[in-house]
Design a protein that fits this description.
Layout lengths: L1 E3 L2 E5 L1 E16 L2 E15 L5 E15 L2 E10 L5 E10 L5
């Protein structure tokens, strides 16, 4: 399955992450018990450090209930030196997507 996982990181300036993702769902008893993902994309920074970078990332999604999913992942910028970020959060699942 292919998806997008855009994000905005704010630390004084804003950085926009625009990855394209391959999802690998694992099912048990007809329901997704967790899904691994890997992606590649671009990041764009604003402010004094304006730059663009290639990012690669991966992580896991764990459904908590029909509308909510726990997510954890890591992003790495690889062109302008290695920059690593970790994300942990709860996502909302939109019906029909």
């Amino acid at each position: 399955m292919i998806s997008v996982r855009p994000a905005v990181l704010i630390n004084g300036d804003a950085t926009f992450l625009l990855p394209i993702t391959l999802d690998f769902p694992f099912e048990r008893a007809g329901r997704v018990s967790f899904a691994l993902y890997m992606d590649v994309g671009a990041s764009f920074s604003t402010g004094d450090r304006k730059n663009a970078d290639l990012i690669v990332s991966g992580g896991v999604d764990i459904p908590l209930s029909p509308p909510f999913t726990l997510t954890a992942g890591a992003n790495a910028g690889v062109i302008n030196g290695i920059e690593l970020g970790v994300l942990v959060g709860i996502g909302y699942n939109f019906v029909g997507f």
